[in-house]
Amino acid sequence: MLSNASVWPTIFKLRLQQYYSTYIKRIINMLLKTPMLKIFTTWLSCFGYSDKKDILWWKDLDFARKLPFARDRVVECYFWVLGVYFEPQYFLARRFLTKVIALTSIMDDIYDVYGTLEELELFTDAIQRWEITALDQLPEYMKLCYQALLDAYNMIDEEMAKEGRSYCVDYAKSAMKDLVRAYLEEAKWCHEGYVPSMEEYMRVALVTGAYKMLAPTSFVGMGDLVTKEAFEWVLSDPLILEAASVISRLMDDMVGHKVS
After folding, report:
1. Which one of 52, 126, 157, 164 is separated from 119 by 20 to 30 angstroms, measured CA to CA?
2. Signal sequence: where (predicted)?
3. Which residues 6+ apart lie within 8 Å of 51 measured at CB?
4. Which CATH number fits domain 10-257: 1.10.8.10, 1.10.600.10, 3.10.180.10, 1.10.4160.10?
């Protein structure tokens, strides 16, 4: 067929469309019968990625069974991270950011739909303390998430220490602490039946949208490309981050309103 393409280009295009349609149907049928995780890991292999273990790490945590109230979004989270940086040299940053986003999704569900106010206050306090002894004050289901969170940050801290860049992790921890404090404030509103003003809501909601946590966290593991000055800049709420936070927050709220 290819040898005749230059002689009869129109016929070639029609034949190509026919083959394309046939193969697309076969691929779709195959995908519908294949587990999502298997599709994703196969896709990663095709593109030369060695990050499969960073997805399988989630499977080992077994949150889908242990925390059935929470959304299982690790594949979705990883695709989001690939949009931030797909280049092979950023594999460490990708690994850390994937873990943080996936765990943040779990925490979001804990604060939004499952935890009691007393439990949420304990969890918030534990993250402010950021130490293993804080596990003792948490209910069992929260211990799973808290331990996984500590492990994720300890992993990247060890890697950054080798480069003499442990300060990077301190910035990421600080942003996470800010996020959970804002989560708790929204949870208090909900439990008390309080309706904030638009200005009051946006002050907190721009933090719970998580972009202000994810931005500095995404810098960790990118090597000498990111300096202390870069962290200080992103934590100063630059206009570009403020705008992204507003857009993300309002779009998320509109989708949530339509669903509910």
Report:
1. 157
2. none
3. 44, 78, 91, 94, 95, 98
4. 1.10.600.10
Q: What is the pLDDT of residues 87-140, one digit of tens each?
A: 888 989 999 999 999 999 999 999 999 999 999 999 999 999 999 999 999 999
Whether the CA torsion 51, 73, 211, 189 is positive or negative: it is: negative
Residue 190 contacts residue 120 (beta carbons within 8 Å)? no
Q: In whole angstroms, give the CA distance from residue 184 to residue 117.
A: 8
Q: Is the dihedral of CA 24, 30, 34, 40 positive or negative?
A: negative
| Residue appearing with tokens 């804080």 | 134
| pLDDT mean by block of 10 residues, the chain; 260 residues | 45 51 57 55 52 74 94 85 87 93 97 96 98 96 98 96 95 98 97 95 96 97 94 96 94 69
